[in-house]
Amino acid sequence: MKKSFRSLVHAAPLAALLCALPAHALYKVVGPDGKVTYTDRPPVTAGNKITSLGAGGTVQSEVALPLDLRQAVSRYPVTLYTTGGCDPCDAARQLLRQRGIPYAEKLVVTSDDAEALQRLSGGRDAPTLTIGAQAIKGLSADVWNSYLDSAGYPRESRLPANYQFATATPLTERREATPEGRRPAAPEEATTTPVVPSPSGIKF
Fold it and tell me: Beta-carbon neighbour count of residue 148 at 10 Å?
């Protein structure tokens, strides 16, 4: 009975991932002849330049990844949600990079960002990790590695030497509205607004 229980425990992350609907990545493939094609499956033909496209068609990487890593990224793309002044967020970023996990990073800075994170993950914890549609709140190296294992990510980095991780971007679109009939302040008149490292309600 103990053996059966252990099997269920180890199978839990995989079951959670399989129950969540995977977000399929797209790939832009430029062949040796310059012909461009798009596909939802990782290409395996040698000599092609492959660009991985994340949600909304944003470019994640311009280098070809090993087949097993491309398959994991295609089935279960990884996104890290972080905020400023957050030591666990730094540790989470380091964990993903040391393991060689291609990921997108979203910054939670404003109250709009915090509300968006609440809708995405059901909480306002930083860091939060999503693997496909599975959200994991708070940093736990053992838990994160278990889910990444179940998603098929290699245990050790398989990233090419010239791979560059994507730059962190705000979780929600920034809107800069200028009041009607008022000119934007001249550079010498502009005031500096202090950056709030952690919006109200964010926990880490």
Answer: 24
The pLDDT confidence band at residue 171, using thresholds 50, 70 and 90, is very high
Sheet bearing 78-82, strands edge to edge: 134-137, 128-131, 78-82, 103-107, 169-170
In the structure encoding, which two tokens stand for residue 69, read together? 């890593």
Name residue, tokens 């962190």: 168
**Strand partners for 107:** 82, 170
Which amino acid, residue 185? A
- Quote the CA–CA distance of 45 and 31 in Å, as a whole number: 9
Burial state string for 95-120 with b = 16 or more CB within 10 A and e = fewer than 16: bbeebbbbbbbbbbbeebbbbbbeeb
Tell me the backbone φ, ψ of residue 165, rounded to 5 degrees: -70, 145
- pTM of this prediction exceeds 0.70: no
SS3 content of the chain, % helix, strand, coil (to 5): 30, 20, 50
Sign of the alpha-carbon dihedral angle for 42, 68, 153, 158: negative
The tens digit of pLDDT for each residue in 59-118 reads: 444 568 999 999 999 999 999 999 999 999 999 999 999 999 999 999 999 999 999 999
- Which residue, among 103, 61, 58, 98, has the nearest Cα to 81 in the 3D structure? 103
Residues in the chain: 204
Strand, coil or helix: 129: strand
- How many whole angstroms separate alpha carbon 150 and alpha carbon 144? 10
Q: Write the pLDDT tens digit of every residue in 110-144.
A: 999 999 999 999 999 999 999 999 999 999 999 99
